[in-house]
Amino acid sequence: MKKFFKKLAAGIIGADVFLVIGILVFALIKLAYILLRKDLLISKYNIGVVIAIFLVLGFFYGLRSLKKRNINSKMFKLNWVNFWMTIMTSLVFSLGAYIILREGFNNDIGIRSFIGMALMLILLMYPFCALTSTYFIGKRFKKNSKRTILMILFNPVFIMIYFWLFTIVVYNSIYVPCGVAIVGVDNNKYTANTKSLGFSFAETLLKIDDKEMNSLNDVRAYINSLETTKEVVVETDKSIYYIKTYNIGSNRFMGLLLSQAYCERQY
After folding, report:
1. What is the rounded CA–CA span in Å between residue 238 and residue 202?
2. What is the pLDDT of residues 36-71, one digit of tens each?
3. What is 177-262's CATH topology?
4. How confident is the model over 118-161, as pLDDT tens digits?
5. In sequence order, what are the residues at sequence separation of 6 or more whose Cβ sits closer than 8 angstroms to the Cβ of residue 19?
6. What is the rounded CA–CA span in Å between residue 222 and residue 109?
7. What is the mean pLDDT of residues 197-215?
8. In three state form, how does the secondary structure of 209-247 look?
């Protein structure tokens, strides 16, 4: 029975490590799309399938590593060093996030939310703590470029960035851009005429020069594609407006403050 639980723990830990690797992969893809200024829309089912594959591969990799009994197998053993290092690291980051949310954003999260955040961080932080205790603590310390790269990739700060990018991917898999809301008019010397047009600031921008606009990227791309400043025809769900574009430096604007609207994706 004891042997069975050791194998089970190794499999679960392996699945956790590969879960973080899966999050890292999605985050790097999302980062590439951000740099390319493109939207990344992946079906939530596809995300679920990919994550499930990583979990299964991780489970069997944990079992295999435990069976080989090499230095890597120590990563997949649930020992007290890994356990307490993970708990302490997760609590530090949880408290930091709690203080930032409470003091910086006036968002006083409850005890359940705090516990949920701590449990989530335990899953995310375990690979880093296991790597640290396995390769960089004690007499078995050896310089190894591969291990150093792993430590950098699984650094807690990077892990939080990966998870943030991954949540954006998941959010985009559930919600898609479905329009652009007009929330105001920019306050500068070029927008005096635009202010007098009488926007209700509850209108949805539908078209510019008879071209459909479904996202902020569509609006930016079209305005920046204009060869010169010109008067554009802006159609909303309530009226039609004629707005003069203008340049500031190398960028072109039409003076409207816009917000992206999102709708739940239909599968």
Report:
1. 9
2. 877 777 888 999 999 999 999 999 998 888 887 766
3. Pdz3 Domain (2.30.42)
4. 899 898 998 888 888 777 654 454 556 666 777 788 888 888 89
5. 51, 54, 55, 58, 123
6. 41
7. 85
8. CCEECCCHHHHHHHHHHCCCCCEEEEEECCCEEEEECEE
Q: What is the pLDDT of residue 9?
A: 85
Say if residue 168's pLDDT is above 60: yes
Q: In the 3-class helix/strand/coil scheme, how is the chain assigned residue by residue?
A: CHHHHHHHHHHHHHHHHHHHHHHHHHHHHHHHHHHCCCCCCCCHHHHHHHHHHHHHHHHHHHHHHHHHCCHHHHHHCCCHHHHHHHHHHHHHHHHHHHHHHHHHHCCCCCHHHHHHHHHHHHHHHHHHHHHHHHHCCCCCCCCCHHHHHHHHHCCHHHHHHHHHHHHHHHHHHHEEEEEEEEEEECCCCCCHHHHCCCCCCCCEEEEECCEECCCHHHHHHHHHHCCCCCEEEEEECCCEEEEECEEECCEEECCEEEEEEEEECCC
Structure tokens given for 100: 């930032």
User: Does the pTM exceed 0.85?
Assistant: no
First vs last C-alpha separation in the chain: 45
Q: Please give the pLDDT value at position 139.
A: 46
| CA 77/CA 96 separation, integer angstroms | 29
**Which are the contacts of 16, defined by CB distance < 8 A and separation ≥ 6?**
58, 123, 126, 127
Q: In whole angstroms, give the CA distance from residue 41 to residue 32.
A: 13
Which pLDDT score, from 0 to 100, does residue 71 have?
64
Phi, psi (5° rounding) for residue 234?
-105, 120
User: Where are the chain's structural domains?
Assistant: 2-174, 177-262
Q: What is the mean pLDDT of residues 246-264?
A: 85
